[in-house]
Each structure stands twice: as C-alpha cells, then as structure tokens.
Amino acid sequence: MSTPPTELSSLRSTRVVAARRLGKRSFRAKERRFLAEGPQAVREAAAHPGGPDGRTLVELYATAEAAERHPDIVAAARAAGAPVLTATPEVVADISGTVTPQGLVGVCRFLDTPFEQVLAARPRLVAVLAHVRDPGNAGTVLRCADAAGADAVVLTDASVDLYNPKAVRASAGSLFHLPVAVGVPVETAVAGLRAQGVRVLAADGAGERDLDTELDEGRMLGPTAWVFGNEAWGLPEETRALTDEVVRVPIHGRAESLNLATAAAVCLYASARSQRTSAGCRGVTSS
C-alpha cells in the first residue's frame, strides 16, 4: 500500500513563499514564471509544449479535494513532468491570491513570442493592445482574439503585464493558444505589421470611418491588425496617426459607447467573417 503524499500546510514553506511571490510583477520578471489558477488554465498549461527551457507547466499545487475532482488534470500535469504538490486549502488560497480559489494553481514558465517571430508567420489577423492598463480587459481581449481565430496578439510596452494573475484568469486559457508578443513599442508594432502587408486599423469611437462601411465596401478582406486603446481615454492622437484608418463601431441604439472588450470582439469578428468562408466558421458556445 502506497503512502499518501505529505500535504503542504505551512504558509512559510520556502516553496510556498516562492510561488506566492509570483503574484508580484517584479518577481515574475526575475524568475520568468507566472501563476495559472483554476482547472481551465492549468489544463491548458499542462498541454502547452513550452519552449527551449522546457514544458510550460513547472509544478502544480492542488488541494486534496480538487485533485480528486480533476484527476485528468493531475494526470496531465504528471505526464508533462510537473510535480503535483498536495496542499491545504489555506496554502492554495494564499498562493492564488483570489477570494474564491478553485483549488488548483500552476507555476508556469513565460511563453511570450518574439515580435519578429509573429511577423515571420505572416499573420492575417492581429490584435494590438496599446495603452491597455486593466488586466481583466487585456485577458478578455486575448480571449476574444483567440475565439475569432486571430493569429497573434501584441501588447505594447505601455500596456499591462501579460502575466498579471487577473489577465491570466480573464484569458480563460486562451493565453496558451496563440502567440503573444509583449513589450513592443507601438511604433515598432505598426511599422512591422505594415511591412508584412497588414492593414492597420485603430478602433476608436471618434473614427471617421464606420465599421459597417468598411465591411460593405469589402475593405477588410486582406490581412488586418486592430489597435485597441486605453479603457478610459482610448487612443492618443499620435497613435491614431500611425495607423492606416481610424474606425468606429457604429452605435445604432442609445448607448453612449462600448467597453473595450466588447468593441474588440465586434471588430475582430468582423475581420474574421470577411476573411473566412461560412464553411470555415465554428459555432459559438458558452463556457
């Protein structure tokens, strides 16, 4: 009869302290590791092949209850070579930093893609997050880009940290699905994409062009990158000036505006519909 694994119970354990510190950006940058919390994120992390430094999932902390409830995730983590550490609910909650922890927290290696590699793949649909400061919005736009079939997401150097725990949670696993370049100056992003034949559009409520008109005139059939701005004040004039067109999402009702993530979803799906045949579209399901 095998001996059950020892349960981590001390919040002062060296291992627990090291994992908890990844909630802070400075420690994430130093270690080039981040936290993925919850079944969906951990499942995707275990499946992600990683890069030269090894598989993405480094280790998994799980409560006994969560491990029993998700044996497939535990098995996938072990198959990926990641140690599975059983811990008390208090320890897992302390590491995750969430109000309602889900019992699973993975420590993962950074997985961002060099911008040059994004360009080399000749992308047809890209989301560029310029001056996006809210991690929840950043993660949600990443999820929208993934759902719309985008080829990549680019976060400029003025945007939030991709590996902020709130951004990782909001991406709902999409962080592990498509290339994401980080820390790219917006001028470099626009120039690089344009050099690859990508039409760069700024999404802004004050745009002179209308999204419906763009679609009706067939101007969105080719490779397109959408630049999305700050949640509160949109895109600065100098950023709008870099792009090929400034396009607004039409408001047909009485709403003052759309929030960032909703506008991003509308724009990305408009491009996706233009670029794909109806036979190639997947159905939309709720999570």
User: What are the low-pLDDT stretches, counting only 5+ consecutive residues below 50?
Assistant: 283-287
The major pleated sheet works out as: 7 strands, parallel
- Helical content band: 25-40%
Approximate shape: elongated
Characterise this structure:
The structure is a single chain. The longest helix is centred in the C-terminal third of the chain and has 16 residues, at 260-275. This protein has 13 helices and 11 strands. It has 287 residues and is an alpha/beta fold. A 7-stranded parallel beta sheet has the order 7-6-5-10-8-11-9. Strands 1-4-2-3 form a 4-stranded mixed beta sheet, with helices on both faces. Mean pLDDT is 90; it is low at 283-287.
Features:
alpha/beta, 287 residues, seven-stranded parallel sheet
Secondary structure blueprint with pairings:
Layout: H1 14-20, H2 25-31, E1 33-37, H3 39-47, E2 57-62, H4 64-69, H5 71-79, E3 84-86, H6 89-96, E4 104-109, H7 115-120, E5 125-129, H8 135-147, E6 152-156, H9 165-170, E7 180-184, H10 186-195, E8 199-203, E9 209-210, H11 211-216, E10 224-228, H12 237-240, E11 245-248, H13 260-275
Parallel strand pairs: 2-3, 5-6, 5-10, 6-7, 8-10, 8-11, 9-11
Antiparallel strand pairs: 1-4, 2-4
